[in-house]
Amino acid sequence: MNEPITLHQFTRSSCDLFIRLIQQSKQDTDITDSSVDWYPSLIDLLSSYPPSQPWIPIWDLCYILYFQPSHLDLENWLESIDPTPSGDPWTLLKHHLLRGHTQEVIDTLSTLHLNTHEQGMVHTLIDLIESKETMPWLVWHETVLDTLHYYSHVPDDVHPDLVGLFLILSGNEDAIWSMGSYFESIVAIINYSRPSMNARSLAEYTQARGYMDKENQVYAYLMMGYLEEALACMGPWLQAHLGYALIAVGAKVVDQEILDPVYYTIEDYALTIAHEQDLWEEAVIYLSACQNESWIIRLLNDPSFVNKELETLSSMVKLCIRYQLPQTERLVRKMMGHQLERQGEWKLATIQYGKALDTSSLDRMAEVIMNKYLKEKEAVLEVVMDSALKQSSRYAVLMDYNQFKTHLNSKDYTNASRLSLKLMKSVHLLPHFDSVLFIDILSILEDKTQYYKSGELIQLIQIFENSIKEPSVVLATYYQLHHTPLPAPIVIAKIRERIAYKAAISQAQS
């Protein structure tokens, strides 16, 4: 017996096994293949957690009926749910024979005190039992029927239960049902009457027979093939794991138009382990099998997860990539971006927003970064130069401005002048930012080289005159940060004079 484990360990190990079911289901691997070792691992797990041990017979029955395409060997399973009852030797013989315990029958018969007639019949019975495995079944069955006919009239001193043993061995179904319990009778009928019975024919047979006793009803439903009814008798863990396993092996046919109820039980189970055991990654793994990513998004939008530490969120992103959950990945990256932004890690936040395709957050970041730059003399443009971020029009402008400033600082006025015009014409330029650009290009306008063409200078004049119709405090403030403090009217006049001067020279040269 394995060492007992805690509920937390049991839940995590259950998820490991569920992952193997998901992988095999996606790879279209035959889950019944003998090389698959998931089932022994499952039984070991159930054995290690005492509250789950009663579930083992349910799995065993499903393994026999649905997980292995072979003979319906139910003897050991029956013993696990209903051990052979005790009683007088003749009662014990009846139960052993019904259950297929042939060696126990032979051993018990050898202990009985029998009269002469009974001794002969017992010797014949033992011969028939021993020859069952060596003779072709039909030949053996005919031999049993002939023997039974021979003993149709027996002396009064023969114990009546001895004849009953011959009736069981002959596969007389009426006699079997009258002598055995429901599941004993099923085992005996498979052994002595219908040896070719498989799961499908067993379902048809048991459906016709019916089952009225509420005790062990889940087993009867499984035999009948009533999987929905069987699962309804189970708790959340069994419904989720056994239900998905039945779908994975094809035993439970899923309607392509309607989401199977099993997936709703998986969702309920996932919610439970997330909120009660703080197993969020495991919950996402379970939900990944449900063909509905919106369930995962709904789960992770819970404040209990949103406020998790960055390490937890980062681990969840890796999980989303592994399980190909793009929408969920974007959601978690957005959460990471918000946390990083609150911590002042603007570059890292921007990267996460970009990977999350979160254009609204990128737009906001662009404004936050630029506003800080415009108000602080020593401020540095914290811009991530990644083309993927151009999905945000505002951030694309910020990237262009950053590139413009790089050219400007390195006195690459050719590229700087080109970019300045592009920025001024952009409809996504931040409010009053054109004033900033005019102050930035003063160094270009003051250079002796003519970097703007005549038509471009005319455009600059038009843009400048429009921009000063509503004078902005940004103009004077920004100028003071980077030049000698001057009143706004003087700054405006200075810019106007330099543009006009360059325009006049350009006109004269043309």
Give the % helix: 55-70%
Number of DSSP strand runs: 0
Instruction: List the uncertain runs.
Output: none
Calculate the terminal CA-CA distance, rounded to whole Å.
98 Å
Radius of gyration: 41 Å
**Biggest sheet statistics:** none
The number of helical runs is 30
- Structural class, by secondary structure, is mainly alpha
Estimate the global geometry from the Cα principal axes.
Answer: rod-shaped
Roughly what is the average pLDDT, rounded to an integer?
A: 90
Strand content: under 5%
Order of helices and strands: HHHHHHHHHHHHHHHHHHHHHHHHHHHHHH
Please specify the SSE layout and strand pairing:
Layout: H1 7-26, H2 38-48, H3 56-67, H4 75-81, H5 89-98, H6 102-109, H7 116-131, H8 137-150, H9 160-169, H10 173-179, H11 182-192, H12 199-209, H13 217-224, H14 227-232, H15 236-248, H16 261-277, H17 280-288, H18 293-300, H19 303-306, H20 310-322, H21 326-342, H22 346-355, H23 359-375, H24 393-409, H25 413-425, H26 433-440, H27 442-446, H28 454-467, H29 473-482, H30 488-509
Helix pairs in contact: 1-2, 1-15, 3-13, 5-6, 5-9, 6-7, 7-9, 10-11, 12-13, 15-16, 16-17, 17-18, 17-20, 18-21, 20-21, 21-22, 22-23, 23-24, 24-25, 26-29, 28-30
Folded structure, characterized:
This protein is mostly helical. The chain has helices at residues 7-26, 38-48, 56-67, 75-81, 89-98, 102-109, 116-131, 137-150, 160-169, 173-179, 182-192, 199-209, 217-224, 227-232, 236-248, 261-277, 280-288, 293-300, 303-306, 310-322, 326-342, 346-355, 359-375, 393-409, 413-425, 433-440, 442-446, 454-467, 473-482, 488-509. The termini are far apart.
